[in-house]
């Protein structure tokens, strides 16, 4: 009997030992994985941040990320407008690969299929698989319907709104879209929204402290997007700014900077800064005339393919893993944040459908030379751009293609297309080869002018006219291809001389294919 008891006790202690060692091993594995924090600003101008030269709005907390890490002079967003750019970040690839080329328009009018498709994993879903606690706060704007919302796309702790814009006041008069907490409607917010998002982020970090799991925080700001709204507390910091619009904008940006400061202070207080990979950038350039954002010395603004629409403030910090206080001058893009995070977390990169982003760590610590990307591409309807080395091809609405050399013309003041026809042809060929690999858009931007509440596209209310202006998209497509004289399923400028040629010719190669035309006809 005594021997049986001793044997049982021995087995019990052996079992406890195994459990203890397993727990230690798990904690050790988690300890090797960094926390990942992404601060994504909304509509922030290239020169709105201290580390890029802003002199009237201090941004000490954002500047600290660059000072303790690396700032990127040539950091790009995936798209010149909000929603597609965010889709590129969350999926690690050109969002055009799954037809995410256009904004939604107001949520109530948006296409039913708007959003990141379920078959395309998000960064949160990938990180959750390797043991991360995940949190999203702020603006979503990459899916409204069931199955496409943040709490259904890998985020465990969620707080924010799903639309593209919202009032910053608890019950403001404009764009008062529904707030959600953990997927359920929430109506009890009492703080200025940027402050509330900071509060929730800090709460998540504090809660996760007990779990010993590494965390992923996606702080997806709606600041400094319209509407221009700031509290007196923030505006009063800028008595020397006389322009009312600029003063409000300054207050909004100061609140954003404070929010980042609150999160980073919490991380430091918990002794976790050394084990945290931190990113900061903007989803697109600033819409200068609407908000007073500054993109100088760049030309252009949000919605355009000039540098001011796509080149953004960009910084990254990982103490001890990348240099501190350095400047990196080679082009990087938003989807690189995704892949860098996955590699740092020890996640397996997909091989079946490779991601377009690159791991930036080897390039920053000197283990890998060259550029992360030799070529980068953008496409938005009739507009497109390609950066090929330091050359940049730009196609604006209603204008011929332009060619710039960014090495000595960052402001894109000198169009070199006529002086360099061979380089123009080369960059166009490279762009076209990329564009032909991408999907046609799965939806168009919808609002009350072209859609009903619920997302159904409006049909022509008037009888068909000779011009075809009142035809349905399908009818217009059929009439269009009557001009296909040789019946090869392609329209050249010689065959079709209509005013919408450039709109339908999505890749700008001078030919309208059936695939391009059908994409415009889809509801």
Tell me what you see in this structure.
The protein has 523 residues and is an alpha/beta fold. It folds into three domains: 34-371, 3-Layer(aba) Sandwich (Alkaline Phosphatase, subunit A); 382-435, Arylsulfatase, C-terminal domain, CATH 3.30.1120.10; 473-521, no CATH class. The protein contains 15 helices and 18 strands. The strands form four sheets. Strands 7-6-5-4-8-1-9-10-2-11 form a ten-stranded mixed beta sheet, with helices on both faces. A hairpin with a 6-residue loop joins strand 15 and strand 16. The radius of gyration is 25 Å and the shape is globular. Residues 11-30 and 460-471 have low confidence and may be disordered.
Question: What descriptive keywords fit this protein?
Answer:
single chain, alpha/beta, Alkaline Phosphatase, subunit A, Arylsulfatase, C-terminal domain, 3 domains, 15 helices
What is this structure's SSE topology?
Blueprint (H helix, E strand, L loop, with lengths): L1 H31 L2 E7 L18 H8 L2 E3 L2 E2 L5 H10 L31 H7 L3 E7 L17 E5 L17 E3 L2 E3 L6 H16 L6 E6 L11 H4 L8 H26 L6 E7 L5 H4 L15 H4 L3 E4 L8 E3 L3 E2 H11 L16 H4 L10 E6 L2 E6 L2 E5 L6 E4 L15 H15 L37 H8 L9 E3 L8 H4 L6 E3 H8 L2
Parallel strand pairs: 1-8, 1-9, 2-11, 3-12, 4-5, 4-8
Antiparallel strand pairs: 2-10, 5-6, 6-7, 9-10, 13-14, 14-15, 15-16, 17-18
């Amino acid at each position: 009997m005594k021997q049986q008891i001793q044997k049982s006790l021995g087995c019990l202690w052996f079992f406890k030992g195994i459990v203890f060692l397993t727990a230690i091993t798990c904690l050790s594995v988690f300890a090797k994985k960094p926390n990942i924090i992404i601060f994504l600003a909304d509509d922030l101008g290239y020169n709105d941040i201290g580390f890029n030269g802003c002199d009237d709005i201090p941004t000490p907390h954002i500047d600290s990320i660059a000072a303790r890490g690396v700032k990127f002079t040539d950091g790009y967003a995936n798209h010149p407008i909000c929603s597609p750019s965010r889709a590129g970040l969350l999926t690690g690839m050109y969002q055009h690969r799954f037809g995410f080329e256009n904004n939604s328009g107001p949520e109530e009018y948006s296409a039913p299929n708007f959003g990141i498709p379920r078959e395309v994993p998000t960064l949160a879903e990938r990180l959750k698989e390797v043991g991360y606690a995940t949190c999203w706060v702020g603006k979503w704007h990459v899916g409204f319907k069931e199955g496409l919302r943040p709490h259904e796309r890998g985020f465990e702790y969620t707080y924010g709104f799903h639309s593209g814009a919202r009032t910053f006041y608890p019950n403001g008069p404009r764009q008062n879209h529904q707030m959600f907490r953990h997927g359920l409607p929430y109506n009890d917010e009492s703080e200025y929204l940027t402050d509330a998002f900071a509060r929730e982020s800090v709460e998540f970090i504090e809660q996760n402290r007990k779990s010993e799991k590494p965390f992923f925080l996606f702080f997806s700001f709606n600041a400094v997007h319209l509407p221009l709204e700031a509290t007196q507390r923030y505006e009063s910091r800028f008595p020397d700014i006389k322009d009312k619009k600029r003063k409000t904008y300054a207050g909004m940006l100061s609140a954003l900077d404070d929010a980042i400061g609150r999160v980073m202070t919490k991380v430091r207080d918990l002794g976790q800064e050394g084990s945290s990979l931190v990113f900061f950038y903007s989803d697109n350039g600033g819409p200068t005339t609407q908000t007073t954002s500054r993109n100088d010395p760049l030309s252009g603004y949000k919605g355009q393919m000039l540098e001011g629409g796509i080149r953004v403030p960009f910084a990254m910090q990982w103490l001890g893993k990348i240099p501190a206080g350095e400047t990196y001058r080679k082009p990087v893009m938003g989807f690189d944040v995704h892949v860098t995070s996955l590699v740092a977390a020890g996640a397996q990169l997909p091989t079946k459908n490779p991601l377009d982003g690159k791991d930036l760590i080897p390039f920053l610590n000197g283990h890998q030379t060259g550029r992360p990307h030799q070529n980068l591409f953008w496409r938005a309807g009739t507009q497109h751009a390609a950066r090929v080395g330091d050359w940049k091809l730009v196609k604006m609405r209603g204008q011929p293609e332009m060619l710039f050399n960014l090495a000595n013309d960052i402001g894109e003041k000198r169009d070199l297309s006529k002086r360099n026809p061979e380089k123009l042809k080369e960059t166009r060929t490279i762009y076209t080869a990329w564009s032909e690999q991408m999907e046609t858009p799965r939806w168009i931007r919808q609002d009350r002018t072209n859609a009903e509440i619920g997302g159904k596209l409006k049909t022509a209310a008037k009888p068909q006219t000779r011009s075809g202006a009142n035809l349905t998209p399908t009818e217009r497509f059929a009439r269009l291809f009557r001009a296909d004289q040789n019946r090869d399923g392609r329209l050249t400028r010689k065959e079709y001389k209509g005013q919408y040629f450039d709109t339908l010719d999505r890749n700008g190669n001078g030919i309208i294919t059936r695939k391009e035309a059908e994409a415009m006809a889809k509801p």
